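Known limitations

Files may contain more than one protein. Parsers should not assume a single record per file. Below, a two-record file is shown to illustrate correct handling: read the sequence, read the token line, then continue until end of file.
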Amino acid sequence: QVQLVESGGGLVQAGDSLRLSCAASGRSNMIGAMGWFRQAPGKEREFVATISFIGASTRYADSVQGRFTLSRDNDKSKVYLQMNSLKPEDTAVYLCAADPRRIWPPSTAATYYNYWGQGTQVTVSS
């Protein structure tokens, strides 16, 4: 199995930046793409960003394109979501997820992500 642990959330003001981290452990051969989703109170879980296994391909939701950057370290077990120019509408629980498939481009559909972290809260005040 695969375990995912997120860190880096917090309370910030609009316009500030935050960097989320996600560390994967367990069976590394079951980790392909890694991504972030978020869920705000009363709303559906939505895709934020994903990165392919070798890090060559990234995809972003339109709402975060140009403000968020997802990267992956060389051993493929950690990903980092740099969030700049944060807005109150970015407030949500951010969840790291892993898709066991090593495909290009990585999927934006939550259904393909078999492994999920517990989530980290990001709150952006106006």
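...continuing to the second record:
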Amino acid sequence: QVQLVESGGGSVQAGGSLRLSCVASGRSRSLTVMGWFRQAPGKEREFVAAIRWSSPYIAYSDSVKGRFTISRNGAQNTVYLQMDTLNAEDTAVYYCAAPARNIIVSSLGNPGAYDYWGQGTQVTVSS
């Protein structure tokens, strides 16, 4: 089993920045992919970014490309999401997730491909 714990959420004004962290524990050495998703009130959970290190690949949704950066510190079992130039549409609960097995590139944005989820961290951007 794998446990994921997010941190770093908060409130920020439009144009500001936040950095989210996700620490994996348990059988985290088996992981090869970690991703970030978000869910705003009344909306479905949507893909934000993912990083795969078995066959290195990074993916972003179009809505955050150029503003968000995903990175990983393997020694600390931690994945980060640096969020810059935030706007009100980025307000949501952000979730860290990981699949139990390696997944193909075309599945990186599919929440159904992920088996482990964190509890979420709230990001609120005021305009």
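Parsers that stop after the first record will miss the second one. For reference, the second record is described as follows. The chain has a mean pLDDT of 96.
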